[in-house]
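User: quick one, fold this
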Amino acid sequence: MNNPLINPGTGVFFWMLISFGILVFILLKWGWPAVLKTLKERETAINDALEAAEKARQEMKNFVSKNDELLKEAKQERDSMLRNARLTSEKIIEEAKLKATEEADRIVENARENINYEKQRAMTDLKNQIANLSIDIAEKLIKQELTDKQKANELIMGELEHAHLN
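Assistant:
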């Protein structure tokens, strides 16, 4: 078993050790700081990303809470508007009913006044007709009674006695 790969000689071992030491020195001097710097940057990037994710999560939570508040306010405003609209419509309906009642009362009152006016006019016409008929009848009666002179004198004397002079 004299395989140089399995049992290296002292010279090969020495030079391998020096080559390995140089390689470790070069890696420690220039390679390892670059790897550490890259790892540090990666770690910083990951931490920044985690912080950004936490910030985004918090902002989303705030956004959801604000959204809920806005939704709640919008519902309250909608309810308020509906309530106001309902009150306004009820007020308008009530005013319309009141105006209609007033108008109906006014029309009824006008009708009553017209009926009373027509009734008075009819009564006046009737009285005038009765007066005219009475005058006509009285005129005819007086003509009949005045044709006789004695009856005429008696009628005149009777009326003069009943008449009061001022």
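User: anything notable?
Assistant: The chain has two helices and no strands.
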